[in-house]
Amino acid sequence: MVCSVAPAGPAGYYLNDRLAASRTWQGPPHQVWLSSIPALEVHEGDALDPRLFTQLARGRRPDGKPLDRRLRQGGRTRWAIDAVFGAPKSLSLLWLESDDRAQLEWAHHDAVVAAMQPLLASDWTARRGAGGALRQPVACPPVAAFLQLAARPSRSEDRPRPHLHSQIVIFNLAERGAGHCGEQDANRWGAVALRDVFVRQKQLTLAYHDKLAANLFRQGVAVERTAQGYVAVADYDRRMVETFSARARDINEASRMAGAHGAALHARIARDTRGAKPRDPDLGALIEQWQAQMAQARANEPAAPDIPMPRA
Predict the structure, then answer these.
(1) How many CB atoms lie within 10 A of CB 272?
(2) In this predicted structure, what is the pLDDT of residue 121?
(3) Residues ≥6 apart with Cβ < 8 Å to 61
(4) I need a surface site. Which of 60, 94, 107, 150 has the fewest CB within 10 A?
(5) Which runs of E-coded beta strand occur in 63-142?
(6) How far is CA 50 from CA 118, 137, 280, in A?
(7) For residue 33, with 0-12 CB atoms within 10 Å meaning exposed, 13-18 middle and 19 or more buried, which class applies?
(8) Helix, strand, or coil here: 159?
(9) pLDDT digits (tens, 9 = 90+) for 45-55
(10) What is the separation, in whole angstroms, between the first and last Cα of the chain?
C-alpha cells in the first residue's frame, strides 16, 4: 500500500481510537513519539502524552502560552500533516489468522520507524516573513505514531475491516534555536516547511516496504513483490483478500460511475465513501466477527473440479 500524506484531522481523531490499546498481547506501543524534542522533555520512543499532544494541536506551548496564531487549529496554517503507512491487505489477514499477532505488528512498526528515520534526520526549516518566503533552520518537529488495527468501514459495511496501519502525525511547528536564529529567538516556535514530506512520499513508501520485506523474511514469512515494488504475503488466497476489500470496490465503482480521473478526485471519492468510526469497538468481538466472515468465505468457495485420472 502506498504511504499517503494529507492534512491531519482533529487531535481527538487520533487520541480517541483506543482499539490497539485493548490488545491482550504485548505488541508495539499504540501511541508513541518518534522524534526527540528536548524543549518539551520528549524523547524518541516515549509513550505519547495526550495532554501535550492536545495542547500542541490547539496552538499552545507546554507552559500554556499561545504559539504563533497561524499554527492553531482553524487558523490559516494547518497544525499537522498525517502520513499513513498501511500494511498490505494480505499481511493484515495473516495477522488476523496468526497465533502471534504481536510479532507481525512489530515487523510493521519497525518498518515504519526505519522509513521515517531519514526524514526525521533531514534538515528542517521554518517559514518566516511575509507569506513565509524566508526559510530558517529549525529542530525536528514533534512527530507521533498511532498504531491502528482496523480501517474505517465503507458505507456498505456494518463494521470496520482488519487493517494493520500506522498514522504518523508530523506537527507544523518546531523550535527556533538560538544557534540558528539569534539569542532573542531561543525557545520560540515557528511553522515548518512540510513540502519535503509530500515530495518524499514515494521514497517513504518504498523504504517501508523494503524494511517490511526484510522483517517478514526473518520471521519466516514468504513475500512477493508487485511491479511497483510493494510487498505482499506470497501465495496468499486472493479470494480472501477480495472478500475483505469492500471499500476498494465501493471506491472503484463510485469512480467509474462518476467518470473520475486524477488523484485529487479519487481521494475525494474515497473520503465520501467511508463510513464513520464506531465508538468504543470491542477488539475481541471484532476479531471473532472477522474470523467468522473468513470461515464463511472459505466455506462458500467452489469445490475443486473432480478430474478423472487417466487410465494406465
Answers:
(1) 12
(2) 93
(3) 55, 67, 189
(4) 60
(5) 80-86, 124-128, 134-138
(6) 26, 28, 18
(7) buried
(8) coil
(9) 999 999 999 98
(10) 50
